[in-house]
């Protein structure tokens, strides 16, 4: 046998964690809390099912699909149904897993605030929806605080990123003023 083959043999075995290779991992003395895979998924809130695309992806890593789906649906009850969220799933050598749910994508938040289903599609071509500066401010601050994106950013940077996203969607930013003189 080639020495190069022996050098890569353990590395290749560690790269795959499938049920039929589980006996090999016991012989390699991997700690039970060793992180083996990081899986990233995009799932609609409160609508995870064991069918495709979630089922086949989790099945190849021997993660219990129905347990994951029920946990995910419970943890996303604070969101409206059908909101796309990104899930980062951490799979460990002993077969256990944990997952983090990120906040919804900024563009989706702005489209929901404006009441539209999709953006205009062309940059710098306005006309697909209207949003107020306060809606932008509220959305980006919620996302920054909930998602942990405040680290070294100033408030100006956070809001200007939100304005850039709104403009790239082709939405109009309007100033709404209320006239209280005619109020009775």
Describe the structure.
There is one protein chain. With 184 residues, this protein is α+β, with helices and mostly antiparallel strands. The chain has helices spanning 3-15, 22-27, 54-59, 65-75, 106-114, 133-147, 155-168, and strands at residues 35-44, 84-92, 97-101, 130-131, 172-173. The protein has two domains: 3-101, Ribosomal protein L11/L12, N-terminal domain (Ribosomal protein L11, N-terminal domain), CATH 3.30.1550.10; 106-173, Ribosomal protein L11/L12, C-terminal domain (Arc Repressor Mutant, subunit A), CATH 1.10.10.250. It contains seven helices and five strands; from the N terminus they run ααβααββαβααβ. The strands form two sheets. The chain has a three-stranded antiparallel beta sheet with strand order 1-2-3, with no helix packed on it. β2 and β3 (97-101) form a beta hairpin.
Write the layout of secondary structure elements.
Blueprint: H1 3-15, H2 22-27, E1 35-44, H3 54-59, H4 65-75, E2 84-92, E3 97-101, H5 106-114, E4 130-131, H6 133-147, H7 155-168, E5 172-173
Parallel strand pairs: 4-5
Antiparallel strand pairs: 1-2, 2-3
Structural class: alpha+beta
What overall geometry do the principal axes of the alpha carbons give?
Answer: elongated
Mean pLDDT: 77
Helix content: 40-55%
Widest β-sheet, arrangement of strands: 1-2-3
**Count of runs of 4 or more consecutive helical residues:** 7
Order of helices and strands: HHEHHEEHEHHE
Instruction: Just name the CATH architecture of the largest domain.
Output: 2-Layer Sandwich
| Percentage beta strand | 15-25%
Radius of gyration: 23 Å
Report on the biggest sheet. 3 strands, antiparallel
How far the N terminus sits from the C terminus, by CA atoms, comes to 93 Å
- Strand count: 5
């Amino acid at each position: 046998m080639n020495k190069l083959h022996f050098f890569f043999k353990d590395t290749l075995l560690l790269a795959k964690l499938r049920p039929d290779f589980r006996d090999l991992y016991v012989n390699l003395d991997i700690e039970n809390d060793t992180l083996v895979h990081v899986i990233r998924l995009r799932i609609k809130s409160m609508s995870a099912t064991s069918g495709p695309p979630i089922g086949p992806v989790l099945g190849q890593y021997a993660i219990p699909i129905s347990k994951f789906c029920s946990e995910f649906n419970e943890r996303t009850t604070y969101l409206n149904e059908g909101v796309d969220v990104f899930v980062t799933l951490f799979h460990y050598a002993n077969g256990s897993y944990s997952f983090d749910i990120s906040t919804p994508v900024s563009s989706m938040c702005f489209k929901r605030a404006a009441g539209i289903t999709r953006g205009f599609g062309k940059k710098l071509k306005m006309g697909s929806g209207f949003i107020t500066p306060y809606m932008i401010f509220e959305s980006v601050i919620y996302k920054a605080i909930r998602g942990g994106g405040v680290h070294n950013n100033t408030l100006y940077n956070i809001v200007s990123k939100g304005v850039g996203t709104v403009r790239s969607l082709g939405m109009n930013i309007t100033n709404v003023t209320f006239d209280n003189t005619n109020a009775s």
